[in-house]
Amino acid sequence: MTGGGDRPGAHDGVFHRDDEELLAATAPFLLDGLEAGETAVVVCGKRCGDLLVDALPRHDRLHLLAPSDVYERPAGAVANYQHVMERYARAGVSRVRVVVQLDHGGTPAEWMEWSRFDAVLEHALGPYPMWIVCTYDRLRVPEPVLVAAALTHRHLRTGSTRTANPDHLDPAEFLRRTASGGPDPIESGPPVLDVADLRDLGELRGAVRRAALAGCAMPVHQVQEFVLAINEVATNALLHGRSPVGVRLWAAAGRLVCTVTDRGAGFDDPFAGYLPGNDDGAVHVGTGLFAARQVCDRVDFEHVADGFSVRLLLG
């Protein structure tokens, strides 16, 4: 089995309505891997994890991980999977089979960001011998998540049957279609900080920190992390964009939104910021965006009438 062409990785979806359908599509998949000398990993909540573990024989190559061990934010989750796969590769593991049950959060913004993660995951893990099966409970998972999942998995599984998904979108295409959620409602009001022509990053960090702390009632460490994320994106705009660079910040109880806009052409890499930058000592746009995605709940970028804009959201 390969993911198609010369891709060792594979990414399947399972849509089920009850425990019986879930187990029929996942337990034999994991058991086949164990019998073939492969490693099996279950990344599920307690109930789903217990169901799968109870359906399988005890085995030292069967591992159960809590979702919190892997998932916090999408960019970090992709990196976690890469690190896991590299660790298994160093240990000589031929292939890793993974069954995943992901909590997509409680808001439309979270649903979309984790759906985008599915597309990024397929792209990032294509070169690795990792076969991932994502499970979706049709009776509990929000409909928008189900709709997106039907586009982000190359194959679908029902019982012992695995078929190519005719509705699958190329990951880059899916990300481009969902590249920006548009302005946040908080942006309809006046910003608490408006820098029209950024010149000094040190001054910007101080001004953002003061304005954010005064307006959002978030813990200091969260605000400071958000300040550093803005600094990374603003640095990108100064180095790679075109002046003037504008920075606008909105704050409300438990929420921060910031836009960084320059007059340049921007970039058209839908995976920017979801994957670590190149380790070659050079400065890359993706490196700063990757750092920002580790902190923010969402990072959008879009071409606007007068240039290119990055939107960072926390809370």
Architecture overview:
- This protein is an alpha/beta fold.
- It folds into two domains: 10-177, P-loop containing nucleotide triphosphate hydrolases (Rossmann fold); 185-314, Histidine kinase-like ATPase, C-terminal domain (Heat Shock Protein 90).
- 42% of the residues lie in helices and 22% in strands.
- It contains ten helices and twelve strands.
- The protein has helices at residues 19-35, 46-55, 67-70, 74-90, 108-125, 143-152, 171-177, 201-216, 220-240, 285-295, and strands at residues 10-16, 39-43, 62-65, 96-100, 130-137, 155-158, 161-164, 193-195, 246-252, 255-262, 298-304, 307-314.
- The strands form two sheets. A seven-stranded mixed beta sheet has the order 3-2-4-5-1-6-7, sandwiched between helices. Strands 8-9-10-12-11 form a five-stranded antiparallel beta sheet.
- Helix 1 crosses helix 2 (46-55), helix 5 packs antiparallel against helix 7 and helix 9 runs antiparallel to helix 10.
- The longest helix is centred in the C-terminal third of the chain and has 21 residues, at 220-240.
- It is elongated, with a radius of gyration of 21 Å.
Short descriptors:
elongated, Heat Shock Protein 90, 7-stranded mixed beta sheet, disordered N terminus, 10 helices, Rossmann fold, 315 residues, alpha/beta
Computed structural class:
alpha/beta
How many DSSP-defined strands? 12
Reported by name, the CATH topology of the largest domain is: Rossmann fold
CATH architecture of the largest domain: 3-Layer(aba) Sandwich
Distance between the termini: 41 Å
User: Topology as H/E string?
Assistant: EHEHEHHEHEHEEHEHHEEHEE
Largest sheet: 7 strands, mixed
Side-by-side strand order of the widest sheet: 3-2-4-5-1-6-7
Summed over residues and divided by their number, the pLDDT gives a mean of 90
Q: Note the beta-strand portion.
A: 15-25%
**The top level CATH class name of the largest domain:** Alpha Beta
The geometry reads as elongated
Number of helices: 10
